[in-house]
Amino acid sequence: MTTPDVTVVVAVYNTMPYLTRCLTSLVEQSIGRDRMEIVAVDDGSTDGSGRELDRFARLHPDTVRVVHQPNSGGPAVPSNRALDLARGRYVFFIGADDYLGPEALARLVAAADRWGSDVVLGRTLGVNSRNIHQAIFASTQEQVDLFDSALPWSLSNTKLFRRELIERYALRYPVDMPVGSDQPFTIEACVRANRISVLADYDYYYAVKRLNARNITYRSRHIERLRCVESLMTFVAGLIEPGKQRDAVLLRHFAWETARLLEDDFLKLERGVQEQVHAGVRSLAERYLTDHIRGQLDLEGRLRISMAQRGSLDDLLAVIRQDAERGVPATVVAGDRWYAAYPGFRDANRDFPDDWFEVTESAADWLAKCDVTSIGWEGTEAGRVLTVTARSPRSDLLALSAEVSMSVGDTPATTLETSADATGTTIRAGFPMHPLLTRIGPGGELRSVLVRVTTPEGTGSAPVRVPRRPTVPRMIHRRGVRLHLITPTTNHKGQLVVAITPVTPRRVIARLRRRWPQGGK
């Protein structure tokens, strides 16, 4: 039997109707079905995913192999089982709700063969406003290093791996991690690899955010996520010696997974859960948070994690409430140093270092910090405008800034009004719909609303926050023959974002399914 060039691993649990598009994108790959195999493991699906897998296996018996098993509670067990069955020279993992560009596998395998790569990343795009870190895909690179590139921010398993590397080091997924079990696998593969390559010349992978948001990553809870980040950091610490290389990987886990445990939704947790998360983050910080890592965290992450490490739960809650309920804190200027006066700053009853609160190196960015006071729609469909009003606590903002602007992503406001009084500065901006809808890909986009200021010292920008989330309706807007759904909302940091999603038959059907009970009754 001829050895396939690549085995595609698909762990499946209740992913209809997305699974159909995923499998179709695989069997139609330009590499040809004779050079690939698909190993799909149905992890106890109850929505017809198992039947759909069997249908594809009947249509393509020489390419598609299907295994059915009872539900295991996460992707680790089915992924490991597929790895045990894999025969290809390379292995590629795909989420069962995602899909590939038609030439993806051919290009990935060709690059791995050409460069002798053990791991190859192809440019990944988000669909349905799914956020995908793009820094690693800035350019095609024959060789990148895990420790001095943006690779730690792209540690999902959706890559091409040389199977000989996987088997040589017996790489498998930890089965005790319901969330994030692909990261230890990916991290160790990248540590062991002789060469890691990046391809940015093609849209290889489309990562889909399900419209029903039932993916286990989206709905997992704080304690589950805490246990997973504990497992991740323990794994990294056992794999990489202390020093800047370990810090390069742990920085991602502090800045992303750990910081997300302490976002504004932390305020809504029961006190007992808050105490568990506070204690868990404190333990992680005491074991792994070096000064080098702390100094690279943004202000919000640095301050909240530091408060969890050395402050009480109430100290931590006070800092989070400042952002979530009260808005941008005052600025304290001491000589040539700038500080954000969050609760606890220079408190005589506390012993918190000033550098936790310092914003000197990002003073222009700090000047751009504003809170949204209102969002609304004006005009008719032909000339509809999204209006955003934001407030800075600095009454001297206009005096300090040569220019103040607001944008949605890279799209500037067409109207901008600014005014100052004794308590601060108000910025009101208008965004017509047509400019916002240019260059929207098939998966849609998620764009941050930014304030930019230019000062004699430089230009800074900051996403606007929404301390008290306003209610604003979604709007459907037509551009030519295409319809787009425009949704002003907030991201996981409480920042204002605008989700722009093409209205497609698939989206309409998914929405109807959510609204109508099974059987239409």
What's the arrangement of secondary structure elements?
Blueprint: E1 6-12, H1 18-27, E2 36-43, H2 49-59, E3 64-69, H3 76-85, E4 90-95, E5 99-100, H4 104-115, E6 119-122, E7 124-127, E8 141-144, E9 160-162, H5 163-168, H6 182-192, E10 196-199, E11 205-208, H7 216-219, H8 222-239, H9 244-261, H10 271-288, H11 291-296, H12 299-310, H13 313-326, E12 331-334, E13 337-340, H14 363-367, E14 371-378, E15 385-392, H15 397-400, E16 403-408, E17 411-412, E18 415-421, E19 424-432, H16 433-436, E20 445-455, E21 458-463, E22 475-479, E23 482-490, E24 496-502, H17 505-515
Parallel strand pairs: 1-2, 1-4, 2-3, 6-10, 7-11
Antiparallel strand pairs: 4-9, 5-11, 6-9, 8-10, 12-13, 14-15, 15-19, 16-17, 16-20, 18-19, 20-21, 20-24, 22-23, 23-24
Plain-language structure description:
The chain is α+β, with helices and mostly antiparallel strands and 521 residues long. 33% of the residues lie in helices and 26% in strands. It has 17 helices and 24 strands. An eight-stranded mixed beta sheet has the order 3-2-1-4-9-6-10-8, with helices on both faces. Strands 16, 17, 20, 21, 22, 23 and 24 form a seven-stranded antiparallel beta sheet that branches. A hairpin with a 2-residue loop joins strand 20 and strand 21. It is globular. The N and C termini lie far apart (52 Å). The model is unreliable at 213-219 and 512-521 (pLDDT under 50).
Quick structural overview:
With 521 residues, this protein is an alpha+beta fold.
